[in-house]
Each structure stands twice: as C-alpha cells, then as structure tokens.
Amino acid sequence: MTPPRSGQVIAPDQAPPASAPGSTQEDDLRVVGTPFRRVDGWAKVTGQTRFADDLTFPRMVHMRLVRSTLPHAFIRGIDTSKAEEMPGVVGVLTGKDMPEPFGVLPVSQDEHALCLEKVRFVGDPVVAVAALTEDQAADACSAVTIEYEPLATISSVDEAIETSEPLIHDYGDEGNLHKKISLQFGAVDDGFAQADEIFEDVMFYEGSTHLPMEQHAAVAVPEGGGRITLYTSTQTPHYVHKVLATVLGMPASRVRVIACSVGGGFGGKSDIFSHEIVAAKMALVTGRPVKICLNREEVFYCHRGRHPVLMHLRTGFTKDGAMVAQHLKTALDGGAYGSYGVASTYYTGALQTVTYGLPRYRFDSIRAFTNKPPCGPKRGHATVQPRFALEVHLDKAAQRLGIDPADLRLNNLLPPDSITANYLKVGTIGLGACIQAVVDGSGWRERFQSLPHGRGLGLACGSYLTGAGLPIHWNHLPQSAVQLKLDRMGTVAAYCGEAEIGQGSDSVLAACVAEVLGIGLDDVLLCVGDTGLTPVDLGSYSSRVTLMVGRAAIQAAERARDRLAEAVAEKLDVPADRLVFAESRVFDSGNPENGMPFAEAVQRAEEKFGALATTGSYAPPRAPGRYRGSGVGPSPTYSYSASVIEVEVDPETGLYRVEHVWIAHDIGRAINPVLTIGQVEGSVYMGLGEAMMEEQVFRRLPKNRSNALVHKVPSMLEYKSPTFHEMPPVTTYLIEDPDPEGPFGAKEVGQGPLLPIMPALANAIFDAVGVRIDQVPIGPHMIRKAVEDKAAGGDGRYGPKAFPDIDFGVPLMVPTPDEGGDGRATNSEEAGVRKGSGTMADGVRKDSKP
Amino acid sequence: MMRLPVFRLHQPESLSDAMALMASSDGETRLVAGGTDLWPNMKRRHQSADVVVSLNRVAELSGIRGEAGGEVRIGAMTTLAAVAASPIVRAAYPALARAVESISSPAIRNMATLGGNLCLDTRCTYYNQTEEWRTSIDFCLKEGGTICWVAPESPRCWAVSSSDAAPVLCALGARARLVSPAGEREVSVAELYRDDGIDYLTKQPDEVLTEVVLPPSDGVQMSFWKLRRRGSIDFAVLTAAVALRRDDDGVVSEAAVWLGAVASAPVRSEAAEAVLVGNSLTAEVITEAATASRKVATPLDNTDFTLQWRSKMVIHYVEAALREIAGLEQERLAPNHAM
Amino acid sequence: MDHYTTATLRVNGQDLRVVFPTHHTLLEVLREECGLTGTKHGCELGECGTCTVLVDGEPVLSCLALTAEMEGRSIETVEGLQDGNELHPLQAAFADLGAAQCGYCTPGMLMAAKALLAENDDPSAAEIRTALAGNLCRCTGYHKIVEAVEWAAGVARGEADAGPAREVLFGASVPGEGS
Asked: Radius of gyration over alpha carbons of chain A, in Å?
C-alpha cells in the first residue's frame, strides 16, 4: 500500500493533485510521528486547567439533588415546603418543571430531568434544591419528603424475562425487554452442516463502571436575553446542547454548552445527565449561576457503563480450524433506562466478523430493563463482552483441535479490503503483524504450554471502530468540522467542537494543523468544545476524534495553505507547487533562501483575499449494509490489537498475579507516539481492572423483609480499581501501517487495546493451572473452586451454566456478499418491525411529540 | 462534595484540658485523633457531634519511648507512619511495623494514629455507606435500624473489626493505658475489645486511650500476614498475627495466634496455639495448627470477597505466617506487585 | 448554626489569613476560600488520593484534614510547585510523557511524588509505586507516571543524560524489525 503523504486529504477520491502546494514526502513529517508535549500538558501540571467544579461565577449558588431511595415506585407526593423555608435556599424544582422526556438516542426518549410519576432505581433524581452554599442545599434536601407507592423490582435479565408486570417502561419490544434482535447473515445452518466440529460456550461478563477520577460537575450560567450557557464535564457537548434545548423548550441557538476539561470519561460522560439539565433550568428560574458537583455515590448512579452480558456462542470449525458458521446469543442487563442501550445491544454482535473470516453468522440478542442505574457505553462499547467470549472460545477450540492458538488466529485472519458477512467494509488489517509481535516478544513459541504448573501464557486479539460510521441523529451533515482563522500576526486559531477528555484530542487537532501549515504546535491556538463558538463535532466517543477531527483539520489547513501559497507564489514569482511550508516559513523548494516567514505569508494572503478563514469537515464513507441494524458497526477503518499475558497462579488459594503484558496495536500511524502508548497502557490497565476485580454489582435484601435493591459498592474504596501495585509491566508494540482513511494514516487507539486483555488473562490462567474461568472479573475463589472441581473429576470450569430460553422469532435474513447479497434483508416484512420497537433504524419513538 | 456536619472544635494542648473539655461540653462530644476514621463516618452521618475535641495538639500523647529489648511505650497519637518508621519498632516488633506499614495509603498513614487504629469503628458493607444509601435499606442494627442485614435472624451486629494493629498487639501481649478524669487503668489490648459490632470497645466514653505498652520482645518471633484485594488503600479482610517463643531445641514454648477482620473483635485461636506449644515448627505441625485456627473465624458476607473463600484462606494465611517464622519456603503467592 | 474559625494558613510559602466554617476541611478551604482549585477531589472520604497536598512536607489527604488544625503548619499545593515560570522537573516530565492524561489525579500525584523525591533522590520503580500507591489514576495505567518520576529524579540530581528510554517514547522495537 502506498503510504499517504502528509498534509493531503488522504481518501483517494478526494486527494488533491500531486502537485498540491506544500505536499511533502512521508519522511518530511515534522510534527506527526514525533513524541511531543501534549498541548494541554502545561495547564494540567500547574493546576491551571479548569475542570467544571473549579469554576465560580458572581452570584453563583449551589445545587444538590434528592434521589430516590426506592428501586421502583410510583411517586405519590412530594413535599418541598420545609426545604423552601430553609436558610439560604433560592430554588426548588421537581419533575413537573421539566416534563419533556429525553434520551441520547432518538428511539429511547425515556428519561426525565427529574422523575415525573415513577422512580426506577435507587439514585433516580426526584427533587433539586439550590442554595447559597452546598451545605445549605444538602440540609434542605434532607427536609424534602417524598411519598412513594413501592412496586415489585426487577434485578436481573432472568427476572425481566419472567416478569411482564409491572413494566419498568411502557415501551419496548416485549414486556420488560427493551430490545430484541435477531439477524441472520447467510445460510447459517448449511454452514454448521459443513463443520467438522461444533463447539459451544456460555460466558458471562459482569458490569463495570468508568470510575472517572473527576465526579461529574456542571455550572449553568444565565446570560440575559434568554440565553443560557452550561459548562459541563462532558464528552459530547453537541448532544447535551440538543437535549437542553428540547427539555428547556428553548431555541437551540440560545443554548451554549461548553465542555470543560474532562477528568476522565471512558464513555461515562457521553450521555446527557439529569443534573446538567436541572442546573440549566435552575439557573433560568433563579436567574443565577448554578453549580452542581456530584458526590462519588451519585457518579455510580449516573453510570451508563458496561452492560452485564450473558453470552452463548456456538461455532462450527473445519478440522484445520477455519470457522464456517457462528451463532451468538447475548442477553444484556440494561438497567432502568434506554441510554445508548439499543446501540449497545447491536454492538454485542456487530464486530464479531472483523477479525477472522466468518462466512455465515447469526446473532440474537435481548436487552432487559432492570431497576438499576442504566448501562451504556464504556471503553470498547459492548464489543468487549462478546470479544471476551469469542477469544476464550477460540482458545478452547484451538486446544480441542490441536492447533496453536496463535496459528488458529493467523490462519483465519480476515483479508484486508473485505466486506464481512454482516456488511462491514474493512480496509487495512494489521492484526497479523500484531499477533506476530506479541508472539515473538513473549517467547510464545517456546514457552506456551511449557511453563511450570502455576505459570501460564494466554493470547487474545481484538478490534475496534475508528469512529462510528453513522451519527446518532441520522442526517447527511458532517460529523466533524474545523474552522481556522489566520491573521496578520501569524496566529492560527483552530475552532472545533471536539472535547478533550484526556485522550489527547487537542494535541491531535493542533498537530494536524501545524503539520500542514509548517508551523509549531505552540503557534496553533485552540478553541474547542464550545457549541456557541465552535463548529459541530459529535464528541469524544466511538474512538472517532483522531480520524474525523484530524481529517477535518487537514482539510481546513490545506485550504488555508492553498490561499497562502497562491499569494506567496505571486510575491516570490515561484510556481505555487514549488512552495514548501516548514519551520514557520514558506519558501521555494528549489531555493530555500527564497521565502518568507509564515506570518508574512498570511499578510500577503490577507492583502490578496481579505480576512482569512477556512473550514474543513468530514463525513465517513457510506457503508454497504442496507438492513435494519446495519447502522451499528460500520467505521471508516478498524484498529486491531493482540496481547499475550503471563500470569502466576497459586492453585491452592486461587490468588494470581499478572506478571507481564505484551500488547501490539495496529495504529496506522501514531500522530504522537508517547500519547499513543499512554492510550495503550491505559487500555491495558482498564482491561485488567475488568478482568481482575471491577464490578458494578447490586444487592437485594431478603425478599421477605425488604424490597431494597441497592448498589453494593458505590465508593472508591469498595469498587475495586487497580492501584500501582496491581499494574504489571507492559511491553507495547506500535504497528504502523498507514491507513488511507486516517489522518496521516492514523487509526484509533483509545479503546481497541482494551479488548484482548480480559480473554488473554482467562486463557493464561488455563495455561497456568488447567481450569477455565468463563466469566469476568476473575476472582480467586473462582479459580480455587474450578481447581477443586477438576481435582474431583469435574471439568474444571467456573462460569454460567445456561443461556435463557428465548423465542427470538424469525430472524431478519440477510444474504452475505458471497451469496450474492446486496446488503438488504430478504424478509423485512416477515421479520417485521416489532410494535413499539426501538432499533435505531426504525426512526420512530412511541412517545414522540408532534 | 461530601462535607462534614456542623460542630464546634476544641484543640486542647494537654490531656487534662482535653478531659475537662470532654466533661464540660454541652451535647454530644467526640474525640478525634487523626480523623481518618471519624471524618468519613461523620461525612456519611454515621456519627454526629456537637463538639469535637481534637487531640492533635496534645504533644504528650505522641512519641515512642523505650528501646529494643526492653518495654516500649507508644503514644496513642503517634502517627502510623512514625510507628512504621521507628527503628525501635522495626527492630523489636517487625510484625507490628509490617502491619502498620500495610494500613491504607501513605498519606493516610501520615495522618492516622496508632490509638485511632485501635479504636477504629467496626466495618460492614451495609454500614459504611452514605445516609441516603442506608435509607434505601431502612438502615441497619449498627445505626438507625433494627435488623443486621448480614445475618437478619441474629440479635447482634456483625460489623468487622478491621484494625491491623490490634491482632498484632494482642499477639504480642501489649497493654493499653486508659485515662479518665476518675483516674487511669491499664488493660491488655485484647481486653479492649468486645465481640459486638456496635459496642466493640470496652473503653468508657470518658476514657482516653493514651498509650500502648509493648512488653520486651526478647526471644519473641513474630509474623503478620494480611489478605485484601489490592496492595494499597484496602482494609484487610483477613489478618493473621502470630507471636511465639521457642526453646533452644526449637520447641515452641509459648504461642499466640490471632486473627483479624474475621469477627467483630480480634480473635485468638487457642486450638492453634495448643497444637504449636510443645512441638517443633515442622511443616506438618504448622499445617495442623493452621487448620485448627479456622474454627474461630466467622467471616460473613459483609466485606470484599466471598465469605466461603475468606474462610478457607484463614488456614493459608496462618500457615504462611508460621512458615515465615520457621524459615520455611513460602508457598503462597502475593496477589500483587507490592513490595 | 455554623461555627467559624479564623486562622493564618501558610500556603506555598505565603501566609493567608482566612475565615472559614469550622467543619470545613483543608480541601474545601483551599478550593473555596483560597481560590486554589488545583487541588482536586475524587471521593472526599480518603479513598482515592486525589486531594493529596503536603503538610510540613508530608503527603496528607486534604479531604480529611480539618483546616482549623492546620494553623502554623506549612501547606504545599500544586500551585506552589513551579519556580517562577519554570516548571518543576516533575511537572515537566509529567507533561512530556503524558503522565497527565485527563490531568485530574495529577496534582495529587505530583505532590506525593515531590515528597518522595525530598526523602529519596534516586527512588527505584518499586519505591515510586509504593510511595504513590494511595493515589488512584484511571487513565494512564501508571507506567508513564513512574517513568516521569524517574526522569524528574534524574533531572533533579543534575544528570545531563536524564531522560526516558526510547521504548517509553516510541514503544518497544517490533521483534524482527531490527531497529
């Protein structure tokens, strides 16, 4: 493949002519590919970065929320009269003050800023109180009384399947099942008939939460003239903006959302939260700036994290380990609201096809409503759970087929430039190189199955989107945009709606602009994440920012460069295509002495064209799938990762220690290698947390005594996240094979490297002590139990026993590309749109307003 | 932000002033040492106070006196960091140093005190929650409720004694000095505790724990092992503290085997001690003693990890502590990269 | 009825006379009365290390330190780390290696690391991990933090060749590619 050249719009169909001004060869990249200090680094180490809770405004008051103490109940009465009389109180709001429903997905408009008639989990917000101090607001909250009529609670998928009454919501596909999906790609039964061996597994992936160090915070500021500004800790200011306008009933043009620096996101700040809307409403009602900062327990209630998922995986293999057909069933415990859940449900099936060749594939799934905080996207959004199942499943298959697990994978790699059975268009695939790197680095060939009892190696792979191919609100608008302003002082200001959440998006934006214009990173001034001043970027989710913002930035910068080149060419009397932009100068490549400083180039262009501003934007290419549900899974390009984990296990106790992690990531090109490695290491860390200890779990009290259903561990102490001591050494390999869709060839890195970690650990434990733990997190008691079981003649397995019996009805039948399919389903009528259904593609919402 | 409730604060500079303030203050009055236990509890509204008397400025309560080989006195207000760093403690009572060094995090150890750790409120996952959370379960027997949710049929509270210093000091036969306006008394550290999650200390409300007195350590061999999820921050869910003397033939003449975090008070395993005394520390004797120790542990489902597994671990951790003293190869794996 | 305390706090070498509610912790007073919002908070219960500041040179959790007890003691926060416009070697290394990603745990990490370097100018990686083990970070996986502290220690010792290994900046050499 031809590596893309710097500064070009890389998509072949959009590429400017080769003689474009300022084109440089790959080797000439000056910023991209260099480890540079992140552009927000100085502020972050000096304490100068302002997170939302660091803001203060004149006349600012403080807000707190009264949250439900019941898991499921009708609200029969709310008495705020005492609270209103408390010292310092300036405002009290209840659900009826904001009755408009909302939800991040158009098909799941099922939340209210404050609960209206019903509460659906312990922590659901009911009343808001604002006072002069936070102490006063908290005291006043204690004086609020709420009368409830308790309802039966649903705590699990099984209970949701069994219990059709009471309904947690009055919409959904069936009873308390929010979503039910059945998709079949190709003649799956024929595929299984061709199999030499068919293997089945039932696996469970426990829920976990993001646990950002920063608790969510927001400050709403009334601006006069019917305008409101919300400063908030969000990954998605654009979506917050849309929902604020809707719920507040205001023209969107009067609403401005500013994403503050986010103190850890991981998907947990990509939804729209009650406190954001309520703070804005409170500001409008009181006419004063209103701040709220959640306490840690409330952050656990916001959640929107990893769904607990039970999975059943059945795969047909040939003797030499090729997959001929697969049937995956998933059951998601969604919690009390829709959130991103419909997308999550599809994501548990969507990316099973992008790593290894899979000619025929069936996917069935349900998402249940339960009386717990809503689940949503966490790093690797719902592709993590089925990836765990698939990679452990493959490890077992390799063992049974007598094939080395690395070879099983290498032999079955999906070829580059494939269209998968479920119509995902995959371009470059660096997975083979990733596997090779970790196999070589770890000494896999010599050491796998050869280490002393108690020590083992495990291998697993993964893949992730580099940006969701489709926006949440279906439209044909750009998904990212950048505006550049250049002026006679030589300043280049870049405006973009992206939100820096620590992943380095500001640095990527600055690097792309600086690279194209040949200026220093510090010459680029950023204005980001401000829906009032910056053009829309959809936000920091689905690993979309580097690619989409990068592409938009390159386009804007190239347009600026063209303008400058035209003016400079005239001035220097040199053909524009001979001009080079580098070292903050513009000069003749044939005679570098003949040139001018960048600032002077801007002046010449300003003389010639007037004030200078350019724009760039990006929308992903259209994916080939045309069936209902095909909107989830497409991406401009996919990243790949492979990992080998070495573990030491004490079979007597079940205690284990991760000794080393080797990980290789197909990055396309690292815009900034040191930040890229940081994302890889951070993903490994978070993956290990989920593999070893993190659980968002709930506790019922004895049913004969209590109706309670509470979060078991809503604290930093008892929700276990790894410390320095649990983090093993990590060897990171960056596999650079520039992708034609990515800016300078770059793919994502924020999420993908998490995916192989959990299955690699489970596989390593098997190599160490010969037991299979088919669920995460892997507690020492599970290993000990499996070891005891094996010693007693059992199968030495710890994990879920069975997948519930669910009638998925007639699947939507989609012939595969190999079968001559065109991406459409052949039985849309028969499989039907379920009444009240909530697929993204349905585009209907039951409770939609005219 | 979680904030403290309103209270008045006194910062006396002498013990007598502190006791006078305790006696004379109106309303509910509490003592605070390092604050690392009381402040979180007050923020979660487990405990309240109209008046808090801080011992922070009472210099006479800080410091370590004595020398290795003799009696050693540690002031109750000595920080855990100071105890762990003390050359005397490290030389004469290495198990105490190890226990104290393992408590929570470095910053906490710079604030928390030895006296505070001994008086640490018992812990339970139904109790160490915010007031709002506890409202959701209609509270529990320990605070505001009528049922112990860990064992609903039980008339008592099963919150867990989570002090790491306590089992070691019990095993070492340390004594605690308690001072009140009426006078002072010394009790063994073991006698400081009561097997009740609510009323877990025998100390009277007007008594101040002022000092821990460690007997000479000559010839005592000791060890401390601790189980918890993470190598830092976490409270123990099981500790094993062992102290023993062996005669010249290597036969155990005295033994003290104590477990922490498996009941509402540190518990002693006399059965394990009986196995040890009169025998040499062979691998077989150690396993037998460790197996015997399990009976006194009553872990329940109110800490991290499953209770069945924690119960099994008692044997392994007592065994590990004894093997360390015996100089036998350690078979158990530490679950993290902590030093 | 709130009770107030008036006290002189020595913060980053400056005496500040402040009036604050007696029940407010050092965390609250630094952020709300002193305007020093560099000190962050993640739980306010002593469970995460985010609010770490130095008191008389030692790391302390400001969420559990009662301000009224701080009179006469020397308090250092992240705002006091710089020397003029010069970053402290720890700050520079954290910024350069991406040891600060979201940056939220960073002030607490920096202060804990500063205390470590004050008593041990050449700490091993294990000693760094132990000293910082009370500070949780969710972004970095901790390695870049350890590497930054090692680098800063080298700079502080005046070593001309102090700096991260190539692997820290670019990743490990891919086996077989020879570089």
From this structure: 27
In chain C, positions 27-66, which contact chain A (CB-CB < 8 Å)? 31, 36-45, 47-48, 50
Instruction: Please give the angle made by the CA atoms of C98, C74 and C91, to the nearest 5 degrees.
Output: 15
Confirm whether pTM is higher than 0.90: yes
Q: Domain of A574: which CATH number?
A: 3.30.365.10
Of A297, A656, A717, nearest to B335 by CB-CB distance is A656
Classify burial at B66, counting beta carbons within 10 Å of its beta carbon; exposed 0-12, middle 13-18, buried 19 or more: middle
Task: List phi, psi (to 5°) of B217.
Answer: -100, 5
Instruction: Quote the DSSP letter at residue A578.
Output: G
Range of the domain at B35: 1-60
Instruction: Report CA B170 to chain centroid distance, whole Å.
Output: 9
Decide if A45 and C78 are in contact by the 8 Å CB cutoff.
yes
If asked whether residues C103 and C123 sit together in one domain, one would say yes
Query: Tokens 């570089």 correspond to what residue?
Result: C179
End-of-domain residue from the set B36, B60, B84: B60
Q: C136 contacts in B (CB within 8 Å)? A: 233
Q: Write the CB contacts of B35 (distance below 8 Å, at least 6 apart in sequence).
A: B54, B111, B116, C64, C65, C66
Task: Burial-class residue A321 by CB neighbours within 10 Å (0-12, 13-18, 19+).
Answer: buried
With 60 as the cut, is the pLDDT of residue A841 above it?
no
Query: What chain B residue is nearest to A649 in terms of C-alpha separation?
Result: B333
Cα(first)–Cα(last) distance of chain C, in Å?
A: 70
ipTM above 0.90, yes or no: yes
d(CA A352, CA A361): 9
The reply to whether residue C103 touches residue A45, judged by beta carbons under 8 angstroms, is yes
Q: What is the pLDDT of residues A566-614, one digit of tens each?
A: 999 999 999 999 999 999 999 999 999 999 999 999 999 999 999 999 9
Percentage above 70 pLDDT, chain A = 95
> What residue numbers bound the domain in which C97 lies?
89-168
Give domain status of residue C175, yes or no.
Answer: no
Taking alpha carbons only, the member of C144, C154, C147, C138 closest to residue C50 is C138
Question: How many angstroms separate the CA of residue C116 from the nearest CA in chain A?
Answer: 15
DSSP three-state, residue B239: strand
Number of domains comprising chain A: 4
Domain count of the fold of chain B: 2
B129 chain-A contacts, CB cut-off 8 A: 297, 714-715
Residue of A nearest to B232 (CA): A723
A96 burial (CB, 10 Å; 0-12 / 13-18 / 19+) is exposed
Q: Rounded to 5 degrees, what are φ and ψ at B74? A: -115, 120
Residues A524 and A659 grouped into a single domain: no
Whether the per-residue pLDDT at A840 is higher than 60: the answer is: no
For tokens 């809707």, the residue is A246
- Contact at 8 Å (CB) between A230 and A529? no
Q: What is the pLDDT of residue B91?
A: 96
Instruction: Give me the amino acid identity at B208.
Output: V
Residues C66 and C97 in one domain: no
Question: What local confidence, expressed as pLDDT, does residue B11 receive?
Answer: 97
**B216 assigned to some structural domain:** no
pLDDT band at A419 (very low <50, low <70, confident <90, very high): very high
Spatial distance between the Cα atoms of A685 and A658, rounded to a whole number of angstroms: 11
The CATH number covering residue C11 comes to: 3.10.20.30
For position A4, what pLDDT does the model report?
31
User: In the sheet that A730-735 helps form, which strands lie side by side, from edge to edge?
Assistant: A455-465, A638-649, A656-666, A730-735
User: Which residue segment(s) compose the domain that A568 sits in?
Assistant: 12-30+477-618
Q: How confident is the model at residue B164 (pLDDT cuts 50, 70, 90)?
A: very high
Residues paired with residue A724 on neighbouring β-strands, in sequence order:
none
Burial class (CB in 10 A: 0-12, 13-18, 19+), A610: exposed
Residue C139 has what pLDDT?
98
